[in-house]
Structures are given as C-alpha cells and as structure tokens.
Amino acid sequence: MTRSPMRAPRHVLLSLLLLLAAAGPGAQAGEQRAVVELFTSQGCSSCPPADKLMGELSRRGDLVALTYPVDYWDYLGWRDTLASPGHSARQRAYAEARGDRAVYTPQVVINGARHVVGSDREAIDRELARQAPLPVTVDLTRSGDLVEVRVDGALPADAKMATVYFVFISRPIEVEIDRGENVGRQITYHQVVRDIRAIGMWEGGPAVFRLPASEMRKTKAGHCAVLVQVEEAGRPGAILGAAIN
Q1: Rounded (10°) CA dihedral 80, 37, 91, 229
Q2: Exposure pattern of 126-150 as b/e (b: 16+ CB <10 Å)?
Q3: How far is residue 19 CA from its own chain's centroid?
Q4: Residue 140's pLDDT band (cuts 50, 70, 90)
Q5: How far apart are CA 195 and CA 169, in angstroms?
Q6: Sign of CA dihedral 231, 98, 108, 61
Q7: Would the pTM count as exceeding 0.90?
Q8: Which of 68, 62, 64 is nearest to 50 (CA)?
Q9: d(CA 137, CA 176)
Q10: Going by C-beta distance under 8 Å and a sequence separation of 6 or more, which residues neighbour residue 139?
C-alpha cells in the first residue's frame, strides 16, 4: 500500500525496505548504474525508514541517490522544513510523463523512468538489477571557484538533445519534529536537494559545462550532482548520465 494524495490522506503505509545489495558484478569502478530519487515528507509516518536508508544508498559507488522532500502533506499537522513545491512538481511531472498518475510517499524513481513502491524491496532490487550502467559519461570536478562538467557519449536515436542539470545537495540534516504523524522523532535526511537548475543543453559528443562554485554557497549546498536527462513534452524523462561529488 502507498500513500497517495489522490487517495485517502490518512492511509497508513507499510515501512520502506530499501536495503540494497552491493553493486552488481556488471558495474565497474566509477560507473553509475542508476539515479535513485526518493520523494519523501516529514509529515508521512511511513517515510522515516526510507530517509534512514538513503544514508546507505548515498554511500553506494554505483548510485546517485537524491532526496526530494515534498510539501503536499503539510496540512496533516507539520510543515516540512525541507520541502519545496518544485520537488512536488517534479514528482507529479514524472507521473504525467509515465501516464500512471502514481504520486505517493515514500516513492523511489529510478533513472527517471520507473517508480517503485517503497515497501517492495524485491521490486527495488529487481529494478536496479536490470539497469545497465548509464550510457553517457559525466565527469564532475571542482577546482577553486569553478565547477566543471564534462559530458560525452551518444543521444538515443529518438532524442535531439538532453538537458544538463546541476543539483545542489545538502550534507546530512537532522530535524526534530514536534507535530504531526512523526511527533517526537528526530530524523536525519541525506542527500537533500536544495535546488536543481538547467545549466545547458547537450546534443551528443564531448561537451564542457561550467558553473561558479559561488552558486553552491548561495543555496547552502555541501556538494553537488549533475544529471543528463531527456525531456519529453517539457516533462522529465530518462536519465542518461549522472555524477556526484
């Protein structure tokens, strides 16, 4: 069962069991097999297990793990201190792109295409196991006041270009919750996205993108990630490449 704003809002979810095995034998050092995006909420009683496990996912060398706190459960009694309307919009845009209207917490979206019910560990493992390493190479480096991104590879045959996104990520944040479904709990959030912005369009082949490191300080980000993602009718689609530092 999943918590969805399109269903009964007080429905109790099963706890998320995202304990994943170590990187599969097909992944070589430095290869990114998947981008795992978790949509979560401080006001959702079933989300804390997912939030905890994101700490483990973030240490896997073959994954880029990102947390997007959403704001649509704020009315339940606690206003999520990390939530952004943009995160909720991204989750809904994924659902629109898939055409399934599946919006719930905690929800994991893998490589911008497949979503997995957080309580279904077997489905998560199965979905990650079938993912080949991301086809586009992304090299992310930071030197002084400059962040440089090098992208190389080929676009899918049906895509003319992809968007290169710069993702600002916070270091672990502890939040004490004194109202709502998680009242009395102190929860640590990992890899929280503070901002995501397009830094350029990629048309295939080698390309370089640069951004001032000062942009990270403006968002109070501890580190950053890059996503190379196809857009379909203005909605986020398949992720082709990613890197994090």
Answers
A1: 140
A2: ebbeebebbebbbebeeeeeebebb
A3: 17
A4: very high
A5: 7
A6: negative
A7: no
A8: 68
A9: 39
A10: 149, 150, 151, 243
